[in-house]
Amino acid sequence: MRRSLPRLFGRALLGLGLGAALLAAGGPASAGADDDGGAEPPLVVHTEDGAVRGTMEEGHRLFQGIPFAAPPVGNLRFRPPAPVEPWEGVRDATELGSPCPQPQPPDFATVPWVDEDCLSLNVTTPAGLDGRRGDVPVMVWIHGGFFLVGTGSQYDARKLAVDGDVVVVTINYRLGPLGFLAQRDLSAQNGDVASVCAQLASPTARGLFDRAIAMSFSCTQRYDDLPTAEARGDQVAAAVGCAAGTDVAACLRQAGVEELVRAWLGALSLGGAFVVGGSALPVQPADAIAAGERARVPVMHGNNRDENTYFTPTETLVSTGAPPSPTLTAEEYAAELTARYGDRAEEVLARYPADAYPSPLRALAAVFSDAGPPAMVSTCAHVDAYEALSAPRRARVYAYQFRDRTAFPLADFPFPGYPEGAQHGSVLPYLFELGAPLTPEQQELSATMVRYWTAFAATGRPNLHDAPAWHRYRDDEDVQGLDVEGSGGVGAVDVPAESHCDFWASLAQP
Question: The pTM is what?
């Protein structure tokens, strides 16, 4: 017999904010015998499109660079993915596929990756998968990166696969203008694009996944409507010489990759990748969720305690029109609050006094982490999402907040008095082999989190018999805090009270 890896591989979808998500998609992978047989796990497995050969190391198997769609080049640029051409013989799956075209962080001054033949995925399995009876959960990771940068291969999934006993699929997807450009001529030809909160709301995604984990990107975030996105598309088209009155779609398909990426950078607003309009995403996900018109699957949703320490140093201040200085003074901090909140600034200052933090800049980051900007990763925006997702009768939602302020930072700002804490992205090394090695205390937290995440993928519930109970979200205290022992540990926290969410909601009232 031979075991076939399903085309969509899966059971759970996972994703991290400003672009990433984890879904349990389609059906589970089933265990069984392979052609190679024997005591050692086989390195050749059979997919619907052909056989692939991977590698075996440290208790897991890895298959890399497997194409899941035809190369989106030439006339297929901007079009929905076409089926991959099946192959004869055994395809080598020991090397990574090409990254999708993208600029180089952090300054985006260069565009080193321009290969559009990039639609590939990587599969990590426990070594003992074959010969086992029954189904194995499959988790699909949609990487983050503002829908502009990143690859699936950045995320070494052996921790999830081996310790959680699941199959993990990491994917590349078209980024920037090649994946998210909306322009009137293209829209007329191509239809839609979309990621986890959007998938929950998308009618065309129903039945493709069984659970959803949305990380650090609130499902109440509002996306651009089609006219707004198409106006940005016209700006991109003009920047690459595809002016109105020509065959704009054909011209855009012939434009240079680097030109397109640079034009997209000039037109892009943060979070402005997804578009509401068309059959894939006909309404705002927030509106669909509020109306109970979303996929009826269990959802895990959460953020990090100090999300916006990552974004605050580069945020444009209302009071000055420039990013905050590392030596922001208490007076400048107060002036910024006044510029943002007017006659209610004193109320904000009373809740976030500068002298309660290591520096005024860190106080400003606390304000932004609770309320934004950017709002889509803020704590209170996530609380809004928990309420909306759990409102329909019997909807099962599990909320969390990652709170380890000793975590390795995704971005390290050398500012005095600016501890970055549990900033955006700092949760990733607790699920993937990524970044600096974890301390023993962090390893213990990581082990618990991996088991929570993979139990959710398997059953739709994250609860474990030998870990703190995680209650489904019904009220404010049902957010599971995830911290190292000695700093709060693992257990329920009242996140809305801690982040003054009722107060921030009152400021938003007309």
Answer: 0.92
Strand locations in 369-456, DSSP E? 397-402
70 contacts 58 by C-beta, under 8 angstroms: no
Segment (H or E) for 379? helix 379-390
| Tokens 């404010």 found at | 476
Asked whether residue 23 falls in the same domain as residue 68, the answer is: yes
Is residue 288 included in any domain, yes or no?
Answer: no
Instruction: For residues 351 and 439, state if they share a domain.
Output: no
**CA atoms of 150 and 79, how far apart (whole Å):** 21
Same-domain check for residues 67 and 15 = yes
Residue linked to tokens 């992978």: 29
For residue 365, give its domain range: 312-373
Residue 18 region by backbone torsions, left for phi larger than 0, else alpha for psi between -120 and 50, else beta: left
432 and 329 within one domain: no
Cβ–Cβ < 8 Å for 138, 166: yes
Q: Do both 407 and 366 map to the same domain?
A: no
> SS3 for 459?
helix
Give the whole-angstrom CA distance, residue 382 versus residue 307.
11
Closest CA to 425 of 311, 304, 313, 314: 304
Compute the radius of gyration of the chain from its Cα atoms: 23
If one counts every other C-beta atom within 10 angstroms of the C-beta of residue 81, the result is 14
Residue 288 has a CB neighbour count (10 Å cut-off) of: 23
- Residue at which a domain ends, from 116, 146, 181: 181
Decide: 40 and 159 in contact? Cβ < 8 Å.
Answer: no
What band does 40 get if pLDDT is binned at 50, 70 and 90? low
Alpha-carbon separation of residue 110 from 99, 239, 258, 261, 486 (angstroms): 15, 17, 9, 10, 44
Q: Which residues are registered as beta bridge partners of 25?
A: 209
Residue 275 zone, left/alpha/beta (φ > 0; ψ -120 to 50; rest): beta
The 3-state DSSP composition of the chain as helix, strand, coil percent (nearest 5) reads 30, 20, 50
pLDDT single digits (tens) 332-378:
999 999 999 999 999 999 999 999 999 999 999 999 999 999 999 99
Residues 402 and 499 in one domain: yes
Q: What is the pLDDT of residue 315?
A: 94
Task: Provide the pairing of β-strand 60-67 with 55-57.
Answer: antiparallel
Domains held by the chain: number: 4
Report, as an integer, the average pLDDT of 205-218: 93
